[in-house]
Amino acid sequence: MIRRDYLMRLIEQFTEALSRLLKLKESKNYKESFFLIGQTYKYLLGFDSLFINSLGTEDLISIISTDGVPDVNKCIIIATLLKEEGDVYEAQNQKDISRRRYLKSLDIFLRGLLSGGEIMLDYHSYDLEKIVDKLGKENLALDIKERLSRYYEKIVERNKYRLNSGSNCNF
């Protein structure tokens, strides 16, 4: 019960931050956007943006893992905020920095979703696909392409299961 309450509060705070971030990005207030992203990292994860971006994906995943299993919620928070940073950099025409944020975001999304985040597949498919579209599948490193392929396989398996069990059928 306590863990569920904690997760619900975390989701609520994260959603509020993303809503404010959307407004800041729409008004092209990039400095405040970066500040809010940094504050959100710090508040929800205890790390600042500089720390998150200074670590390689492997090190970052190990920090947010327990017994070798990444915390899916933290993966999603980090991946989403990295994507948002990428969007802000892209809006400022800083393509190289934007691309690095998108790549790291994609890698962390995939690692989180493939490590037990099946429940979250539906909710984050859209963000993940937007990142893939921005990067282009052909420009991805082999290890990320392999994770992406496994992710797509999971989606197909999940859809087959739903079709066979009658879930989400509206006829």
Secondary structure layout plus pairing:
Layout: H1 2-26, H2 30-45, H3 49-54, H4 57-63, E1 65-66, E2 69-70, H5 72-91, H6 95-114, H7 121-135, H8 142-165
Antiparallel strand pairs: 1-2
Please provide a brief summary of the model.
With 171 residues, the protein is mainly alpha-helical.
Describe what this molecule looks like in 3D:
Strand 1 and strand 2 (69-70) form a beta hairpin. The protein has one domain: Serine Threonine Protein Phosphatase 5, Tetratricopeptide repeat. Helix 2 (30-45) packs antiparallel against helix 5 and helix 6 packs across helix 8 (142-165). The termini are far apart. The protein has helices at 2-26, 30-45, 49-54, 57-63, 72-91, 95-114, 121-135, 142-165; strands at residues 65-66, 69-70. The mean pLDDT is 88. With 171 residues, it is mainly alpha-helical.
- Helix/strand-derived category reads mainly alpha
CATH topology: Serine Threonine Protein Phosphatase 5, Tetratricopeptide repeat
Sheet of most strands: 2 strands, antiparallel
Report the mean per-residue pLDDT as an integer: 88
Q: State which percent range the strand residues make up.
A: under 5%
Helix percentage? over 70%
Order of helices and strands: HHHHEEHHHH
At CATH level 2, the architecture is: Alpha Horseshoe
**Helical segment tally?**
8
Number of strands: 2
From the alpha carbons, calculate the radius of gyration and give it in angstroms.
Answer: 17 Å
CATH class: Mainly Alpha
- Shape designation: globular
End-to-end CA span: 37 Å
